[in-house]
Design brief:
This protein is of the alpha/beta class. It folds into two domains: 7-175, 3-Layer(aba) Sandwich (Peroxisomal Thiolase, Chain A, domain 1); 179-327, Peroxisomal Thiolase, Chain A, domain 1 (3-Layer(aba) Sandwich). The chain has helices at 33-40, 53-67, 92-99, 118-132, 155-158, 221-240, 260-266, 280-283, 290-300; strands at 7-15, 19-22, 44-47, 77-80, 109-111, 137-144, 164-172, 178-186, 194-195, 218-219, 252-255, 309-316, 320-327. The chain has a five-stranded mixed beta sheet with strand order 1-7-6-4-5, with helices on both faces. Strands 8-13-12-11 form a four-stranded mixed beta sheet, sandwiched between helices. Strands 2-3 form a two-stranded antiparallel ribbon. Strand 4 (77-80), helix 3 (92-99) and strand 5 form a beta-alpha-beta unit. Helix 2 (53-67) packs across helix 3 (92-99). One of its GO terms (biological process) is fatty acid biosynthetic process.
Amino acid sequence: MNTIRKVKISGIGRYLPQKIITNDYFQRYDIKADWILRKNGVRERRFIEEETNASMGAAAAKEACAEAQLAVEELDLIINASGTPQQAIPDTAPLLQQELGLGESGIPCMTVHTTCLSFLNGLDVASLYIDSGRYSRILVVSSEIASIGLNWQDPASCTLFGDLAAAVVVEKSDDTSQVCTTHFATYGVGAHYTEIRGCGTSYPPNAPHTKKEDSMFQMNGLRVLRMVKKHKTSFLEQLQAGLSTSLCDIDWVVPHQASYMGLKFLKSFGWPEEQIIHTLEHLGNCIAASIPATLYEGIRDKKIQRGDKVLLVGTGAGLSLGAVILRY
């Protein structure tokens, strides 16, 4: 079924923390720099110093609004699409609203949280709202701080992640820009392949059975990759069903920067290497912010042009797969 929505990304922004962490940083944990590059494909990443999810998100949002030629007061919905919350309650969306100076505005805010797929789900929700006429100018922000929840005793995961924020403004399209189709799938059998067990009702902080490690990120990357391989064909077939043309007509692929092996596996989907945009080597895996941050780089580097067909694709804890195809 064709699901074309006449909406466009009218502005995009990104915020990078100033603190650059090279692979040499991890020597204090007896992790060799060359091993990190071979294992994860990451040379450097950014870690926060004084920044918060809200402050980074607001900085990215202001750049996106400026490019869209909108004052932040003209927004009529704010979507926080992030996997790392600033605090348990409230969700990050009203904190972001306040950081933007809109605390008295009454502009509605909401959070879409599907870990690494949060941005894609947020963009999907925004495009549906715009297409229905419910809202006209929606801000979607992914602001991620991974560095505070890493297990420094797990070399594979603690060297993979970075912090940053990215944002887009979504509006009605009066040109060729559109969301061509979207597709999402979740396989709960993989729910515990990627997780932080703590910080919820299963492992509350004051429970005697809760350990420090329960609040740290844990991942079985091999099992995740195996599950993605298992469902790859059916997922692509269902994504293809929403298009009037072939998946081969894609101009650019902007994937979630999950890992070196994940990006290597993406080549098996059939897209040429030169069409796939990478930021893993210098930004690491930045959870939900990876896709919009990589899209930002593709646009700012003048690779992605208006009218190009772009595939945004990734996986998230759950285990979930997601894709949005848009004509930028």
